[in-house]
């Protein structure tokens, strides 16, 4: 299970098994989406499979995730998603009405994100070889001229901005899966980030890197960028927006919010001189109201993420090994 | 299970559930791949999930299928595949060496087809919720200028060409799955058709429609074209290339070769005046040596496929209802 968790084991699987077998230059960049060139235009291309359990949860469904997950991967290259493919793997015996409800949710999410579902496929497997509905989406979108967003562009001096409160998706899934109640219902933050990224790019096309901290949470996203860019990252923990209900739930469940999945947040690496203007634009967007500068990139401890704790100490923020929450998306 | 078989039940699922929920114009065309426009270029975009059992079979593997299935869907729009995405859903406990072997097969097939695996994703589900390895691929390719291949262009007078012997993939899967032996080992015809289509387009860009007869076999492909174009199709059964070992196996298994899946064949609808030249070019290509004109499009019985049997009679070739061979691809 750990190989699917977005941590060290996932990274090893990609680097040791998939990348050598497939061996293309676009894959080697290890971004959320690949930047490719075809017919003279520059596109972002990305895919995700969705195996979340349960299929419907507070704040969303597998249909919403299937759209927003891929739309967000494209947005992390600066691209506005234009077209999605959609492949269903259905388990024999799943109710058609459930397939219909998920499809409606997927269609609504696509319309909300301004993306067209252009092509699809359905396979059915025997009972006991699936779990109701699995969905794969792939998406393509145009990368605007002058935009070159990738981890390798991150450099010392860049400021690190997170677009809002972290930990909501993972805690929402866990609470409904385990039947836990935390006083207020915690809703997934599942949302499409193409519009927010567009707003940021309107301030400056020179965003260095973007990442949506899904599996493995903010900790995994920061570590991936630190490794790919070879810079150090320093975070001030008290600047990271963690809602009190997420803190309480994580304390109860023994989780660290830094490692909990998000499905409607991004972390941006922005040149220092542009950071205030980008932050201001984010605050004016519905999905960026709580955006905050949480740290900076530094020359020392290259490839390592260090957090300054609320108590005045420091700690290394590691890439998770396996996963703390299986089938979160 | 029938909803995954490529027959009437699959068509109903798409038309009654998916198409209304997603509601885009590209999907509505119901081609093997969608023709889309982005940044001023015209692309084919397609996806397929692969759940074949067993993962390795005579003549190929799920890795070969995952490449060739999507490459062929793109080829059916006249596009040469350029980039693939690849999403793995692994079942907990599957051996990493098996994942590695499948990945190697997939990478080799991609290199053979001249397509780059640009982006990927891996999810892991618990034992008992998968079956070793499921793979989804999506692909994009450029549609050449002047090419407009879609079922709606088929018209009375068009000739119907099949590129070679039918039934090999389905019989190969069945024989290994059921432990049957038919004297000679029957190998899957799994292959990438982009080169063959390129050869045909070099003769004339005016191919009307192409289809790769996978699930549901040649019968399903012909029925889909008849329905989408509103023309009648007449087939001469004795002109359809069925290898003797496929005939024997089908007789033994109670199958009709017309309904058995192929993974390296296409059926083309070609203007009558171009048909001989296209056929000649196909014969000169390694994947078209046994290409044959098997019938024609007619004005009577619109939307219906009729076969002239070897015995001098006629029969209606229906779209299959459900499926005769589950998890064939």
UniProtKB/TrEMBL annotation, chains A, B:
One Pfam family named in its UniProt record: AIRS
Top-rank taxon, per record: Bacteria
Domain PurM-like C-terminal, first and last residues per copy: 156-300
Cross-referenced CDD domains: HypE (cd02197)
PurM-like N-terminal domain boundaries: 32-143
NCBIfam families, per the entry: hypE
Family per record: Belongs to the HypE family.
Protein name (Swiss-Prot/TrEMBL): Hydrogenase expression/formation protein HypE
Organism: Streptomyces humicola
């Amino acid at each position: 299970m750990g190989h699917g968790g977005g941590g060290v084991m996932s990274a090893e699987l990609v680097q040791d098994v998939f990348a050598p077998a497939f061996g293309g230059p676009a894959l080697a960049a290890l971004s959320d989406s690949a930047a490719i060139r075809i017919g003279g235009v520059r596109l972002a291309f990305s895919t995700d499979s969705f195996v979340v359990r349960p299929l419907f949860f507070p704040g969303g469904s597998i249909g919403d995730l299937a759209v927003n997950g891929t739309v967000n991967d494209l947005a992390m290259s600066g691209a506005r998603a234009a077209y999605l493919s959609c492949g269903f793997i259905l388990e024999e015996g799943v109710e058609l009405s459930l397939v219909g409800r998920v499809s409606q949710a997927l269609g609504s999410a696509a319309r909300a994100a301004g993306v067209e579902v252009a092509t699809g496929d359905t396979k059915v497997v025997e009972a006991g070889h699936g779990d109701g509905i699995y969905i794969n989406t792939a998406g393509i979108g145009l990368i605007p001229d002058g935009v070159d967003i990738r981890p390798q562009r991150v450099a010392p001096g860049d400021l690190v901005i997170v677009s809002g409160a972290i930990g909501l998706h993972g805690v929402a899934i866990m609470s409904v899966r385990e039947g836990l109640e935390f006083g207020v219902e915690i809703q997934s933050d599942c949302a499409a980030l193409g519009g927010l990224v567009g707003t940021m790019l309107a301030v400056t096309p020179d965003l260095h890197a973007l990442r949506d901290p899904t599996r493995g949470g903010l900790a995994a996203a920061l570590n991936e960028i630190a490794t790919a860019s070879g810079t150090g990252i320093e975070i001030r923990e008290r600047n990271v927006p963690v809602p009190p209900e997420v803190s309480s739930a994580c304390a109860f469940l023994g989780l660290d919010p830094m490692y909990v999945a998000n499905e409607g947040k991004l972390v941006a690496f922005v040149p220092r001189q542009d950071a205030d203007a980008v932050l201001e634009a984010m605050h004016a967007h519905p999905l960026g109201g709580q955006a905050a500068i949480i740290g900076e990139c530094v020359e020392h401890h290259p490839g390592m993420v260090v957090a300054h704790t609320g108590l005045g100490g420091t700690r290394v923020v590691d890439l998770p090994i396996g996963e703390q929450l299986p089938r979160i998306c």
